[in-house]
Structures are given as C-alpha cells and as structure tokens.
Write a structure and sequence with these properties.
The protein contains 16 helices and 10 strands. By secondary structure, the protein is of the alpha/beta class. It folds into 2 domains: about 160 residues, Glutamyl-tRNA reductase, N-terminal domain (Beta Polymerase, domain 2, 2-Layer Sandwich), CATH 3.30.460; about 150 residues, NAD(P)-binding Rossmann-like Domain (Rossmann fold). Helix 2 packs antiparallel against helix 3, helix 7 crosses helix 14 and helix 11 packs across helix 12.
Length: about 425
Amino acid sequence: MSLIAVGVSHRSAPLPLLERAALGAAHPGFQAELAAGVHLADAVVLATCNRIEVYAEADRFHGGVAQIAGALARYSEVDLDTLAGFLYAHYDAAAAEHLFTVAAGLDSMAIGESQILGQVRAAWQTARADGGSLSRELEEVFQQALRAGKRAQSETGLDRLSNALVEHALDRAEQYLDGPAGRVVLVGAGAMATVVASSLGRRAAGGAGTLAVVNRSGDAARRLVSAAGGAAEAAGLEQLSELLRTADLVICCTGAVGHVVEATMVAAARQGLGTPLVLVDLALPRDVDPLAEQVDGVTVIDLEGLGADLAGLGIRPEAVAARTIVTEEVTLWRAARAAADVAPTVVALREQAAGILDAELARLRRRLPDVTPEVAAEVERTVRRAMDKVLHTPTVRVKQLADAPGGSLYAEALRTLFDLDVTDVSTVDRVLP
C-alpha cells in the first residue's frame, strides 16, 4: 500500500468549483464510498475553508486517484472531466510533504494561519473515530505533520503572518466605506472569527465603532464578545436581519452549509437606505449569497478576490524558515518509513539464521553427547557471535540504503537470495505517476 493525496484548493480551482467540492465532501455518502473503495484502505478527508483533500493508502496510484475523483465528482455534482482539470495528486513522499506544508500553514491563502493545524488534527481524529483505527502509515504521517506544523508556528514566527487575509479584507472594506466601519457585525464565533475580532479590536483601539457577534450558539458568541471587549454585544441568528439594517460592515466566517446571508434578506434590510454596506465573506462554502451585491449600495468581498490580491505579497523570511522545517520533517519521515519497510526483512533474515543455528547446535549435541556443559556453552556463544558478525553488515547496510532511490530493491534482493517468507511486506506494485 502507498500513501496518496488527492485534492482541490484555492491554488488550483476557482471559488465556485471549490465551493461545490466542499459540499460534496461534506456528504455522508462521500466518506462511505471512500471507505468501501476497491483500491483504498484507510482515508482521511481534510476539508477547510480553501481546500478539500483526501489522504489515503492505496494499492494502486491511478486506481486510488480515480476512485477519489469519481466520488468527489458524484457528490459535488461536478462533471468528472471538468473536475479533473483542477485536481492535484501526490504520491508517497510528495504526499507527505504536501500534508506537512499544509499543516505548517504554508499552503494557506493567509500564509501562516494557525487554524489549519487544528483542522488537520480534527480530520485525523474524525477518521480514527469513524473507522475505529487508522493504518500505521496514516497514523505516522499525520502525527509527524502535526509535529511539523507545531514547529513551524513555535520556531519561526510564521503565525505572525496569519492575519494577512483578515487585515487585507478590512483594508478593502474601509476603501469602500471611506474609512473605518462604525457598526460591525461578525457572523460566526470559531477560530477565524476570533482572528477577525482581534483585528477589529486593534483597529478600534481608540474606542470608535461597535461590534455585534452573531452565532447559533449564544454561549460561543458571548465568549467571543467577552474576549473582544469594548463596545461588543452577542446576538442570535434570528437578529441578523435587523442588524443588517444598521450595519456598515458584515464579516461572515461560519462553517455552515448554505448561505447564511441571503440576497433577499439583504434587499429587505437595506430597502430605502442607500448607504454603503460591505459584506466580507471568509467562508467556504460561501456564507453570503453573491447576488447580494446587486442590492443598491452593497459590496461583497469574498475569498476569490482576496486570494488574487494576496498572491502577490511575496515570500517572507518566516516562510523560508518554515519551509526548512518541513523539509527536515519529511526527511525524518522518509527515513523512519524506510526503516520500518525493511524491518520485517531484517527480522526474517535473522530468524532464519537463528533457526538454522539452533538446528545445527541440536544436531551437534546429539553427535557429541559427552561434551561438558561448559564446552557446549562456549561453542554456542562462539557460533552465535560469528553469525551476528556475518549478518551485521548486510542488515545495517540494507537499513542505510532503504531511503535511497530504489532502496526497496535491496530488501527485495535479500528476500530473494535467502528465500525469506516476509508476510508483513507489501507486494503491491508501486506505480509512479
């Protein structure tokens, strides 16, 4: 079995297609089809605000990719030929490197965002809970991805760049409003909403402006209000229409499926006003109905436009340092995996040699019954030391060579030369893309 990663993200697809893919991945049938697939063993689905990815163990690269793509096309109702043009696929070490890059926040729309690390952890834990357990391969690669992400955040200061998306969205909003918003409505109370509230708090340090946090969970809204401080209040979703009438700026970042802010709701709330209202949509699937922009005085800013703007910000030193950490962690993962792959062969070789030695010593004892126990023990120690010395070099070298290009061939050669029965070693033909 081999590790594969198949996905679609803000880097590969336009927002409308990514939104439909997100809806498809959320369908219970999607996960069920992956679990029942012919070519896939275990799978982890990572769905965030700007990516849908499946990490899986597959017995064939092309078969596994086709199965994931087919399921995603069916449940997102996107034509497979269309979807295929936006999908990316990674194999073995490249799949691990991509996951580590994602966990570190280096592949996010807002480079360095810390929320992605929690989303990777949640995807891994959900997959474990759904299936009862995960394969050794997926367990190890996700554990090391989380380690890479934690190192990137704690050792590089990369998380300081994570506010770029929110700050840029607020800058854009202020351009349309000709200055800071006086009345802000924040819809959502999760990790992204916390970042938004923090940014709003810094901008309103002088005391200007008010904030209403709207969320289905009143407790979550109140917690965020308490953390935001200042002139902030909590509200329920049933109050959203009323708040739209008095707001200058509405920022949406929920995990809802379907529009939270409908165009008809906006039209009714803003009827007869003519004053500007900016709707910032940081969610995927989108919280704001794009048709809301047709309402007089309303501007919609979404991830598609923000992503295009952020693409030209360039590479920061923090990102370079984080990339170095990712490379280090991938190297460690490859070495550990290579050692684990050859370990059954090494064990089988030593067990075969020990079995032969035990049989020959038993035959020697039968032929020389008068040998004293002291002499017999010394003979056994000598022969076993000789066996260990003979096996030492090939077993050490096969472990050292395992991570080299074609390294698996050395273990295969040992199995062939010594006719070893290694049932734990996969015989899958690893087809490279």
